[in-house]
Amino acid sequence: MQSKSRSSTPYPWLKPAVFVGALTPVAALLLHAWRGELGANPISQALNQLGLVALIFLVAALICTPLKTLFGWTWPLRLRRMLGLFGFAYATLHVSTYVGVDQFFDWQAIIADIVKRPFIFVGFAAFVLLIPLAMTSTAASIKRLGYARWQQLHRLAYIAPLLGILHFTWRVKKDVSEPLTYAFVVGILLLVRVVAAIYARRTVMLENLKSA
Amino acid sequence: MKNLGEIPSTAEITPEALYLRRREFLRNGLLFTATSTSVGAGLLWLMQGNRASKPKSSARTSSLTVASSSSYNTTEPQTPYEAITTYNNFYEFGLAKSDPATNAHTLQPRPWTLRIEGEVHKPLEIDIDQLLKWFPLEERIYRMRCVEAWSMVIPWVGFPLGDLLKRVEPTSRAKYVAFTTLFDPEQMPEQREQLLDWPYVEGLRIDEAVHPLTLLAVGLYGKELPSQNGAPLRLVVPWKYGFKGIKSIVTIRLVEEEPPSTWNITAPHEYGFYANVNPEVDHPRWSQASERRIGDFRRRPTLPFNGYAEQVASLYTGMDLRQKF
Fold first, then answer.
1. A56, B83: Cβ pair inside 8 Å?
2. Nearest to residue B205, comparing CAs of B269, B306, B274, B304?
3. What is the pLDDT of residue B60?
4. Percent of chain B with pLDDT over 90
5. B37 inside 8 A of chain A by CB
6. CB-based contact, B239 to chain A, within 8 Å
7. Comparison of pLDDT for B235 and A70, the residue scoring more
């Protein structure tokens, strides 16, 4: 009898809940660091964990659109920007830990690393690609750029995690099963999009034929 | 009617709209909590694969009698026992650094037989406890530099490999020494996986093997080696990257040709047979110019031959160490 007093957006708890959940990794890291539970090499441990969490969020942001394509769900789309921004935030923490803690601002060594080591270069490239995405993540940016151009730019959202996965794969000494799992997931998500795009084009063509 | 008390003031009365929406608030609150908890738990679960859990120290090792200490000992601060025994690369027990400490309890370091064979006049098959009676044990405090650019200072207990090799009298054709780790998936569960070409093998040139710095270690910090550190017998070659220090050795074979070594087989362009610590020859994927000493905040420069150049550089005169990395 009071249905009209319900809030207009469905699942009003969704976004704040994901936001709070997304802070768990950094909270867990701080807690472990404080209790000395990051193992014998805490810096390398924190570095690896932050990088991994960044990748998880970047992949999670890519899941949203295919979920709508496949199941017609719209609620994941409302999380997409936030997930992507969390990916960027964790990537920033990862890079800052590398620069400020692991290398302790030894710029010479850092530049040498980026230039000489493909493993670091692709990781750095992935981070740099995320910067324009984060900067144009607002609705105002979509308006300013125009949707078509904005969408084109945001296709980088696929390139960055793929570079991140390459970075992850080249880092490990032997077992590549974990990075390959993420590669597999991104591959599936790309496939969904490609198939959906082909399907949409065909539908448009058929409609055109009919109307002709 | 006398016990009803005063009528509450209007401010205290729940507004009707809110009263009617209490179920919705409750429901949203529960959904909020459930969602944030599952997102957090899911993330922590995904991070697990990469996490260093704090392993239970399964080390129940007894003390060793150390006869002497060595002039080769470094006076640098020693890495704590806790770190040495919980941060290990021993893929026979898992890939994560904390895995060996958690899983190596399946290894049975007693009884243990060591075989020495190949180009020797007196081949040998000996029980580890008998072997320990043959040689006075020395404490050797060595730097250990991992190829992954971290390092430790470890007080090993052991005896020079050269002393043992003298006993078996190598023939004139013995140019190299080949070592083999135990192969037993019951004791080393990850040998069921195709991670490396099991069993782990390593090798040294004979002059490297008989160098007085080269040690067969049976203990650390005055106690028997914990399983995760390569019980009951492992190789320590302090001027080479840590992976040369093959663990849980069952066979030593003297041979004429350069023997295979596991990491060299796995990735020949990344890990050479010699694997001498060399800040000027980078790993193809990362720099070897500096290292992090476990427990330190700042990196430190890596020294040629891990700081043992004075003792060992002469072994390699005339050799191109960039090519023979």
1. no
2. B274
3. 58
4. 75
5. yes
6. no
7. B235
pLDDT at B200: 97
Please state the ipTM of this predicted complex.
0.88
Distance from CA of A195 to the nearest CA of B (A): 29
Chain A residues touching B35 at Cβ < 8 A:
13-14, 17-18, 21
Instruction: Please give the pLDDT value at position B67.
Output: 77
In angstroms, the Cα distances linking A86 to A90, A138, A152, A155, B146 are 6, 14, 21, 18, 34
Say if CB B244 and CB B202 are below 8 A apart.
Answer: yes
DSSP B303: P
Per CB-CB distance under 8 Å, the chain B contacts of A86 are: none
CB B182 within 8 A of CB B199: yes
Residues near B28 by Cβ (< 8 Å), separated by ≥ 6?
Answer: A12, A13
Q: What is the largest CA-CA distance in chain A?
A: 72
The pair of structure tokens assigned to A42 is: 């805490």
Q: What is the tens place of the pLDDT at every residue in A169-178?
A: 988 877 788 8
**Is the pLDDT score of B50 beyond 80?**
no
Helix (H) or strand (E) holding B236: strand B234-236
A–B CB contacts, 8 A cutoff, strictly below: 126
Nearest CA in chain B to A57: B43
**How does the average pLDDT of chain B come out, rounded?**
91
Asked if residues A58 and A133 have their Cβ atoms less than 8 Å apart, the reply is: no
Six-digit token pair at B249? 């050795």
pTM equals 0.83
Q: Does B35 lie at the interface with A, CB-CB under 8 angstroms?
A: yes
Query: Which among A7, A15, A23, A41 is the top mutation candidate for probing chain B, defined by the most B β-carbons within 10 Å of its own β-carbon?
Result: A41
CB-nearest to A174 from B50, B195, B282 is B195
